[in-house]
Amino acid sequence: MKNKYRTEALQWLSTKEQSLTRQKNYAALVYETNMLLKRIAMSKYGRSNVAGKRGADWTSYINSTWRAKAFDETDEALLHEDIYCLEAIKPGKATAFVNKAKQWIRRHKV
Q1: Of the N and C termini of the chain, which has fewer Cβ atoms inside 10 Å?
Q2: What values do phi and psi take at 87, rounded to 5?
């Protein structure tokens, strides 16, 4: 099954989302979601193309791999600053990022 990794990634993310949302640990949810995206991208597009990307470079790169191009400045700030701040990440920001990640997992180019 060629796209089995998509199903497995979505199941893993759903489990993480439920667990971390229950704990109200939205920073960890964003972090774990981003790491999942990086793992998938490295396996599909090559480690050398993905590993060093951060912030705008990362969101730009990931947007180049699908039509929606949904990741934006809000996501860049979330990944770059918010997950490392002492202030809590708002649930809505985390949910929006996770939903974009789910869409990307389903629809990115192989």
Answers
A1: N
A2: -70, 145
For the question of whether the overall pTM of this predicted structure is more than 0.90, the answer is yes
From residue 69, how far is each of 14, 36, 50, 107 by CA, in Å?
22, 18, 17, 11
Phi-psi region of 69 (alpha: psi -120 to 50; beta: other; left: phi over 0): left
Nearest to 105 by CA among 26, 30, 38, 53: 38
> Using N-to-C axis directions, what is the helix angle for 26-45 and 73-80, rounded to 10°?
110
98 pLDDT tier (thresholds 50, 70, 90): very high
> Would the CA dihedral through 107, 53, 34, 97 be positive or negative?
negative
